[in-house]
């Protein structure tokens, strides 16, 4: 075990992780508004549509996941933005052997910053939408497994559009087709669970999508950044 | 040895430069001059490997830089008008992260690295600000902080984009002395600047970029 902690790679990962987390925590204001938006939408929805439990029970899983997807789309604009503005990304590109690891850690920290508050808020939010208690565990799992794929895929679109001045619309256009499978599997998992069925199938698919995107997209982003599209 | 062959680049349908070629040996200094918008920064980005030129290539010690990225970037320090660090971290944290990313901190010698960073910050008169957020430093102090990289590690090739901006007289003298030192060590320096009073003792190669006709 000691050998693992003394390994240079382990050290590199911990240092990177620590400072990325610090940087995100010190800029928490940027992160708070989208999450506030999500909470507001979910709290206001039953107020404006109807607080009828039977109706809400049918549509709540879909609504929850659509709002999560909006949240991620809103947050994607923040991804890499400070690093790009401050020139940290250029320096990373020019650092030997560090790029894909650093990208992975950046995306991971970004995931944590989104999904941790979400998972903490989920019990309260699911109360508003009448998602049954028995589906709560599945809902948390679907957030835990679903948001990483959303963010890692979104990272590719963000890297492609870094150099553009108004990249928001383009990111949405690029990324939405890839988000649809995640949305379908995640919301069907939650609605299965709230009907009392087993949600293992959709959750397994969600984790497949997550593993694929988490493992492959840092490599793709590295290639995009090295191509130099961002600097034109 | 850095060799550029037949570099050309086009922006907004305007040729910035065409068939640009030069060779730079260790111990040589290259000053790229030209008015605003003539492509100095673009040329430096191409030389650093951030941008891919329309034609031509750049090679380092005989190997093209896009074929052997690690080999080149290990020896490269690139500094431009951006901070190149995280504004949300303090100078000391930033430099520590910089060293860690380059695998220059051994697990057993963290203390030594911290000492080293402290010394460098003292040399740059930033030791009082070592634990203030970088975003809160003044522009001149941030420019000074960027120079810390030049002091911290030894790299054979420095590419500096407008290193003299926003620096006081002492800072300009410091860069001039750093460039001289780098020369004696056998490294090379490529930089752009509008100033000509940086008073380098040694001879400097120069390239003038002109507003090129179509």
Question: Could you give a short description of this structure?
Answer:
The complex is a heterodimer of chains A (232) and B (214). By secondary structure, chain A is mainly alpha-helical. Chain A is built from 10 helices and no strands.
Low-confidence regions of chain A: none
- Write down the Rg of chain A: 19 Å
Which series of helices and strands of chain B comes N to C? EEEHEEHEHHHEHEE
Low-confidence stretches of chain B: none
Order of helices and strands of chain A: HHHHHHHHHH
For the secondary structure, the number of strands of chain A is: 0
What would your notes on this structure say?
The complex is a heterodimer of chains A (232) and B (214). Chain A has 232 residues and is mainly alpha-helical. Chain A has one domain (2-231). Chain A contains ten helices and no strands. Chain A has helices spanning 2-6, 8-26, 28-48, 53-76, 81-86, 88-93, 99-128, 136-160, 168-194, 200-227. The longest helix of chain A is centred in the middle third of the chain and has 30 residues, at 99-128. Chain A is globular, with a radius of gyration of 19 Å. The termini of chain A are far apart. The mean pLDDT of chain A is 89. By secondary structure, chain B is of the alpha/beta class. Chain B folds into two domains: 1-75 and 155-214, Rossmann fold (3-Layer(aba) Sandwich); 83-154, no CATH class. In chain B, 32% of the residues lie in helices and 25% in strands. Chain B has helices spanning 40-48, 69-73, 91-101, 110-123, 139-152, 169-184; strands at 2-11, 14-24, 29-34, 55-60, 63-64, 76-79, 157-161, 188-192, 205-209. In chain B, helix 6 (169-184) links the parallel strand 7 and strand 8 (188-192). In chain B, helix 3 (91-101) packs across helix 4 (110-123), helix 3 packs parallel to helix 5 and helix 4 crosses helix 5. Chain B is globular, with a radius of gyration of 18 Å. The mean pLDDT of chain B is 85.
């Amino acid at each position: 075990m000691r050998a693992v902690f003394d390994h240079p790679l382990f050290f590199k990962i911990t240092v990177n992780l620590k400072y990325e987390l610090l940087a995100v925590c010190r800029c928490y204001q940027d992160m708070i508004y989208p999450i506030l938006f999500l909470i507001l939408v979910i709290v206001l929805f039953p107020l404006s549509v109807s607080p009828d439990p039977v109706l809400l029970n049918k549509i709540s899983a879909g609504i929850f996941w659509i709002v999560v997807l909006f949240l991620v789309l809103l947050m994607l604009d923040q991804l890499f933005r400070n690093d790009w503005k401050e020139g940290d990304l250029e320096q990373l590109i020019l650092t030997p052997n560090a790029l894909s690891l650093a990208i992975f850690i950046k995306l991971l920290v970004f995931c944590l910053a989104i999904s941790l508050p979400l998972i903490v808020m989920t019990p309260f939010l699911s109360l508003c939408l009448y998602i049954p208690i028995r589906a709560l565990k599945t809902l948390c799992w679907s957030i835990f497994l679903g948001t990483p794929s959303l963010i890692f895929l979104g990272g590719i679109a963000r890297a492609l559009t870094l150099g553009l001045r108004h990249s928001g619309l383009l990111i949405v256009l690029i990324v939405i087709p890839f988000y649809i499978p995640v949305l379908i599997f995640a919301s069907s998992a939650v609605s299965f669970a709230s009907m009392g069925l087993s949600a293992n199938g959709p959750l397994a698919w969600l984790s497949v999508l997550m593993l694929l995107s988490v493992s492959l997209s840092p490599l793709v982003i590295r290639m995009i950044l090295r191509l130099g599209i961002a600097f034109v | 040895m850095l060799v550029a062959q037949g570099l050309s680049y086009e922006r907004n349908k305007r040729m910035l430069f065409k068939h640009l070629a030069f060779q730079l040996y260790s111990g040589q200094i290259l000053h790229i001059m030209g008015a605003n918008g003539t492509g100095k920064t673009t040329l430096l980005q191409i030389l650093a490997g951030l941008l891919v030129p329309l034609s031509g290539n750049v090679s380092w010690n005989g190997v093209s830089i896009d074929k052997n990225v690690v080999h080149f970037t290990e020896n490269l320090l690139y500094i431009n008008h951006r901070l190149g660090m995280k504004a949300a971290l303090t100078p000391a944290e930033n430099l520590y992260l910089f060293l860690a990313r380059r695998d220059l901190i051994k697990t057993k010698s963290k203390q030594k690295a911290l000492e080293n960073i402290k010394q460098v910050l003292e040399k740059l008169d930033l030791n009082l600000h070592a634990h203030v957020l970088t975003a809160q430093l003044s522009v001149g102090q941030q420019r000074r902080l960027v120079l810390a990289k030049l002091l911290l590690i030894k790299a054979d090739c420095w590419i500096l984009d407008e290193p003299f901006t926003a620096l006081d007289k002492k800072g300009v003298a410091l860069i001039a002395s750093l460039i001289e030192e780098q020369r004696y060590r056998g490294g090379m320096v490529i930089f752009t600047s509008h100033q000509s009073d940086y008073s380098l003792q040694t001879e400097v190669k120069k390239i003038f970029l002109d507003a090129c006709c179509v």
